[in-house]
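Predict fold of Tetratricopeptide repeat protein; 205 aa.
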Amino acid sequence: MRKVGRWIVLCWALAAAAEVPGWASYQRGDFAAARRQFEQAAEAGDRVAAFDLAMMDWRGEGATADRARALRWLRRAAELRLPQAQHALGVLYETGQGVDKSLTEATRWFRQAADQGYLPAELDLGTQYFLGRGAAKDYRLAAFWYEKAAQQGDVGAQYLIASMYEHGDGVERDLPAAIRWYAKAAAQGDVGARLKALDLAKRAR
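Predicted 3D structure, encoded as tokens:
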């Protein structure tokens, strides 16, 4: 089973939305103005502004880094159902950064973001079920979420779901489906997937 790439907390990108007050200022590098505008919008209930303000607080852009304050804004954005914020909060619970580590809470937030079709959360939720982290081990649910991510074009998820179809893990064994997903991953440059697709196709003949 290949390891799906993790999203590192310090590399979170701000949620780009041109209509959010403060975004143009941030793009110009005027962090002080962006912070003021994001905060005003966030106080008025703008979930994207709350998320962007949380990221600025986390990284110390426009003010001294303040993770406690960042967490307050992040939680507000997550509770307003912004999937980027829900996933980010799940990562914090998974790693224990700024909050007490809780794989159960991580799974809960990943699920909320995944239910909205957010690709990184689909991957992480699939892994939670595959490994039994923060939820009972369930290959069926792992396969479900990996396939969702694969359908969005994630090459790692395409390889993973192909492997699950090849071996019948969480799904009915289906070699044509396995070949199809390996081929999709191969088309994105995964050499290992290309070799697997060729080997399975040869065996199928």
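The chain has three domains: 13-80, 83-137, 139-205.
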